[in-house]
Amino acid sequence: MNPMQLKLCDIQGRLFEMSSDMNLSSKSFIESFMKSEVARNLDSVYNRMQWAGEEYLMEELLDNCDIKKSDELFPKEVMYWTGYIYRYWSISQKESSRNILNVASPATMRRNYLMFHTMDPEMAIEDLKEINRQKKSKWQIL
Fold first, then answer.
1. Average pLDDT of every residue of the chain
2. Are 14 and 67 in contact (CB under 8 A)?
3. What Rg, from alpha-carbon coordinates, does the chain have?
4. Which residues are registered as beta bridge partners of 24?
5. What is the Cα–Cα distance from 94 to 20, expressed in whole angstroms?
6. What is the chain's percent helix, strand, coil content, to nearest 5?
7. How confident is the model at residue 48 (pLDDT cuts 50, 70, 90)?
8. How far is CA 10 from CA 13, 50, 65, 131, in A?
9. How far apart are CA 43 and CA 97, in angstroms?
10. What is the mean pLDDT of residues 43-55?
11. pLDDT (0 to 100) of residue 52
């Protein structure tokens, strides 16, 4: 991961953290962002949005998505980590934000934060994928 890519991970982490400062429902924010045109632009190999700061990205997102204010907020450190890991995952695994959301939901990220936030991002991503595989196989058995 090069320094520019790591900076993009940090910007997305700060964007997610900012949503808590704005009292935006964490679950709604995460789902809206990961399915948005803004996320699709960040998923690209190169897009001008990758040069934007978190304030501009938030403005773009709020202009195009209806995200409600709420008291249902994840802790700011969980939001930062979630945003960072999702972007790291997209860059390192070349997966779309939408696909990543299908593997690691907001609830999964919140639930596993304490165990995974000190791990190397690659290891955390592999563990999140494994949780998803186990969940799917459990439902196939039933």
1. 91
2. no
3. 15
4. 69
5. 27
6. 75, 0, 25
7. low
8. 5, 12, 22, 25
9. 7
10. 76
11. 74
